[in-house]
Structure formats: structure tokens, C-alpha cells
Specification:
The chain is an alpha+beta fold. Helices cover 50% and strands 9% of the residues. It starts with 27 loop residues before the first helix and ends in a 7-residue tail after the last strand.
Length: 253
């Protein structure tokens, strides 16, 4: 089993030091109140967020190197499987040897796809964290409001949305494009915990909003009144991290 090398680097330490009250004569209730954690300042939150984004980028770079290793291994095993198939046809090896080679290839392909999923998750998380301040500066949308910019597409749908409605969206997409909806995050994830984003009633779909599939999904969501935010990417003109966040914006915890 692969060990996810980038889990540890996402940890964001936002803690404060409890202090004892030096004054005498305080009641028990007042004494307990001074042990509450102090909220970090906006400047500290910005610094911690920037530090976390940098660590996530470093993690992504490490995953990219890991992906290259797995892709090379998959290619080697594919050649080996093809070679063993020829040897089997010549009666030089047994069927079990070919089967074992096939199982090794399938395992390598699964591991490669897992690393690709981790990279997509990192891209989405980096994009949301990087564009958080921009999103918060935008004016609120009224009920049914729609807004589009170079980096974001927003729709404040009025339908009663919950993750229970996700299967309908998946069914629409599968029927339209004959492949599963590429969900990169469903509900709250460990990454959202570290970002301190409330993602409990939202899901992220790894589609560029300007792609044919992305445009079809956006049209379906608007027709159904389902709120969403579509990210074109943290960097204008770059598709990295582009995705569609279905549900209301994830407020900061």
C-alpha cells in the first residue's frame, strides 16, 4: 500500500497560549474564562495560510516526482506483460505466470491513478486557499444571482441543496458523457479541516468551467437552482486547480 507522503505537510498549527490570571479575588467562572484560546489575528491567519499554501505546493512537487516513478513502473510492467503474453502463446510459460504479471500491472496502474488523484486534490485545495481573499472581497449575490469574472463564476441558487441531491447530478453527468462525475472532494475532508473551511455540505468536481463538460454541468446546476462557485484556476489563464464547487461557499470555521 502506498504511504501518502504529503499528509503531514498540510498540518496548520493555529493554537494560542492560555494564561493564568494574576489578580486575586476572581470567581471560579472568571478563572476558567482566561483559559480560553485567543483567536489569531487576521495578519497571523494570512501568514499561516500563506505558509500552508507554500507547503502544499512543495507537497505537490513531491507528488509529481512520485507520479513519474509510478508511470515509469507501469510502463515497464506493461512491456513485461506483453512479453509474457508472447511467451505463453509459444508455450514457454504457464498461464499463472501471465496472470501474476497482469495483477502486478493492474496494481501499478491503481497506484498511479491514486497519485494523480492526490495531485488533483492538492491543486483544488491550493486554488481555494489562494483565492479565498478574492472571493471574500466580492459583493454578496442576491437570491438567484449570477456573476462571472476572469477567475470565478458564481451562482446563488435558491434550491434547497444538500449532498443527498448529489446522485441526481452524478446521474445527469453519466448519462450525458458516459463516464463518472469526477468528484475530487465530497463533504468535509482532512484537507478542508486543515484549511479550516466548512465543507460539510459541498462537493468539488474536477472540471474546468470553460470545458464542454464543465459548461454542461454549470447549465444543469443553474437550471436546477443549485448554488455553485466555479474556479477557473488560481492563476488566470492556467487550468491547474480549476474546479466547480457545488454548494454554498465554504465559510471559514
Amino acid at each position: 500500500m502506498l504511504s501518502r507522503v504529503h499528509i503531514a505537510v498540510f498540518v496548520m498549527l493555529i493554537t494560542s497560549v492560555s494564561h493564568a490570571d494574576a489578580q486575586s479575588g476572581r470567581t471560579q467562572a472568571a478563572a476558567s474564562s482566561v483559559s480560553r484560546r485567543a483567536l489569531p489575528s487576521n495578519a497571523e491567519l494570512a501568514r499561516l495560510r500563506a505558509d500552508m499554501i507554500q507547503k502544499m505546493r512543495e507537497s505537490r512537487a513531491a507528488l509529481q516526482k512520485l507520479l513519474a516513478v509510478h508511470e515509469e513502473n507501469s510502463y515497464r510492467l506493461a512491456l513485461e506483460y506483453e512479453k509474457k503474453g508472447m511467451l505463453l502463446s509459444q508455450g514457454l510459460i504457464s498461464q499463472s505466470e501471465l496472470r501474476l504479471a497482469g495483477e502486478a500491472l493492474e496494481k501499478a496502474i491503481r497506484e498511479t491513478e491514486q497519485v494523480k488523484r492526490w495531485i488533483r486534490e492538492d491543486d483544488v485545495a491550493i486554488t481555494e486557499a489562494s483565492m479565498r481573499d478574492e472571493l471574500l472581497r466580492l459583493p454578496a449575490l442576491g437570491a438567484g444571482g449570477f456573476s462571472e469574472s476572469a477567475t470565478l463564476v458564481r451562482f446563488n441558487g435558491t434550491a434547497l441543496w444538500s449532498l443527498a441531491a448529489a446522485p441526481k447530478i452524478e446521474q445527469f453527468f453519466t448519462q450525458m458523457f458516459r463516464r463518472p462525475l469526477p468528484i475530487s472532494a465530497f463533504g468535509q475532508t482532512a484537507t478542508h479541516d486543515r484549511l479550516r473551511f466548512d465543507h460539510r455540505n459541498a462537493m468539488d468536481v474536477a472540471l474546468h468551467p470553460d470545458s464542454r463538460e464543465g459548461q454542461s454541468l454549470i447549465a444543469y446546476l443553474r437550471q436546477s437552482g443549485i448554488p455553485f462557485i466555479a474556479f477557473r484556476g488560481a492563476v488566470p489563464g492556467a487550468a491547474t486547480g480549476a474546479h466547480i464547487h457545488i454548494g454554498q461557499p465554504s465559510p471559514r470555521n
